[in-house]
Amino acid sequence: MFFALTRCMLRIESQLFKQCIFYSTVRNTEHNQDEYILQPNDKLILRREGRKFLKVAILGLPNVGKSTLINQLVHRSICPTSCKVHTTIHKVEAVYSQDDTQIVFMDTPGLTTATERKKYNLVDTFQKDPEVSISQADVIGIIQDVTNVYTRHKIADCIVQYLKSKRSDTPLLLIFNKVDKLKKKNVLLELSNMLMNNEDGPKFEDIFMISALTGDGINDLRNYMLDSAKEGDWEYEEDSYTDQPARNIIEQTVRAALMDHLPQEVPYEIKIQTEHFDVDEDGSINTIIRLECDRARLIKHLLRPKGSKLKLIALSAEQRLQHAYRTRVQVLLSVIRKLNS
Known about the structure:
- By secondary structure, the chain is an alpha/beta fold.
- The protein has 10 helices and 13 strands.
- β11 and β12 form a beta hairpin.
- α8 crosses α10.
């Protein structure tokens, strides 16, 4: 399975050298004919008669559970998750294929205002990637954290602003997440009436109540997406499950593990880079990740006591990556102090 991902990523990367070239190759099988077509925007699509396709953007405020939800929908830990905000820093596509239908879920950074992006010095992807996802989406899901008493009663203004750029025929879904943590379930009815019947707010086609953490309600949401798919070309091969190179997923998963196990400010000051990456004959992955930091105090925090915290972070990353790749993954972390020039 991992080799299929590697082949897919190498093929996509090779497209960078084929700007503005059109080509197609045909593979005949016993019952079907597959046609791989490279479009002008360097997107490789898989054409086969009778296939269905759907592209879904999952949007919401930071830390509402977007990445966790997508991982549940595709049955793999493709999108890194942590308990801290801004774990997702750029768009990630996670692919789910079942029978004749393929769904591409687009995970996006938490939606922020221009003031917040400037205050926290967030990279450009926090603005651009949600915009791109909205423009590409066939369906848009808006996640509300029902445990947040400050934000759950209305769709945030920044979300409404982003949605102004969506196509008029793109349906909106309202997704209530973390419903398992609500003691008073009547709150869900109140919120539903408030948000679904708000004449001044976004118009939602349907509403789903889920727990991305436990998996409650996920099957209903996935089945809705499968039923909503329209006849069209696939963007990925059947055994592909992301658009991200393996090294990117590993680095971002290590970053998420750092965010879970270190104090608030530390993970954001560490540069993460792959030092070694190798795939064994049995498909297992061995990698060394270099953690660079220019502050001695933070490095000491990483290494104490006797490196046990570093081992815990590596183990956490390994467990998540094994769920993503369905193979053994060994992660070694190397800590380096980077001296300012």
